[in-house]
Amino acid sequence: MEEKELRNGMREITLNHQDIENLMSEVRRAIASGDGELLEKILMWKKEKMFLGTWGMDGITLKWILLNLETGKTILEFGSGEGTTKVLSEHFNMISIEEDEKYVGRYKSHYIHVPLKDGWYDREILKTELVGIDYDMIIIDGPAHGERKKFLENLDLFDLDKIIVCDDLGAPSTTEMWNTLAPIVQKKYDRNFYLLPGTKTGIIC
User: In angstroms, rounded to a whole number, what is the distance separating the alpha carbons of residues 174 and 176?
Assistant: First the structure.
């Protein structure tokens, strides 16, 4: 584990597998003890100090996932890349729905190539491919060249009683999808939803 001091007195840390396990244990103890100040500090680390590389998803969101999902769990992600698939596959089982065949197999993940049809992933292909697949988290970071709001037309394909991470809020189609999806899941599964501080990411958990 590599460390260096930040201006606010906290440490910037490059974490390996065991580091993640230890940090998760500390976070669980903080939650159990009601130490809200510690949890707030974890979430409010400055974005530029937490960025993990030149990738699409920001470092704050990636570290939130590492802190809130048990190592070895399964993530279903829409879109794939160095920002999510490469980093998260070191800690989780990844299932990547990818529209562009040239990216299939690039990182350590179970890739499912689903071309776009009418602005979203081909429903019939996706429906067939998802049969028998279980997952613990959904990351919505795709399609890259379609309309993410069309996720709403296909809710029946997914188990929404999971943690849902919605990236790139601010883009009109994504924001429209989020503003409808979050209240639906909250009402049906008694979930909370919020925007992750310092990011363009929505969390349902």
Answer: 5
Query: Coil, helix or strand for 140?
Result: strand
pTM: 0.75
Cα–Cα distance list, 28 to 23, 32, 53, 67, 111 (Å): 9, 6, 27, 9, 32
Q: Which residues contact 150 (CB under 8 A, 6 or more apart)?
A: 118, 119, 120, 177
Sign of the alpha-carbon dihedral angle for 55, 60, 63, 67: negative
Place of tokens 């070191």: 90
Please write the tens of the pLDDT for every residue from 52-93: 433 346 788 998 999 999 999 999 999 887 778 888 999 999
CB within 8 Å of 57: residues ≥ 6 apart = 83, 84, 141, 167, 201
Type of residue numbered 92: F
d(CA 94, CA 72): 10
Helices H, strands E: what count in the chain?
A: 7, 11
Q: What residues are paired with 171 via a beta bridge?
A: 169
Distance of alpha carbon 105 from alpha carbon 99, whole angstroms = 12
Buried b (16+ CB within 10 A) or exposed e, 99-116: beeebeeebebebbbbeb
- CA 138 to chain centroid: 7
**CB of 120 closer than 8 Å to CB of 99:** no
C-alpha to C-alpha distance for 73 and 58, rounded to whole angstroms: 21
Give the separation between CA 202 and CA 140, rounded to whole angstroms: 10
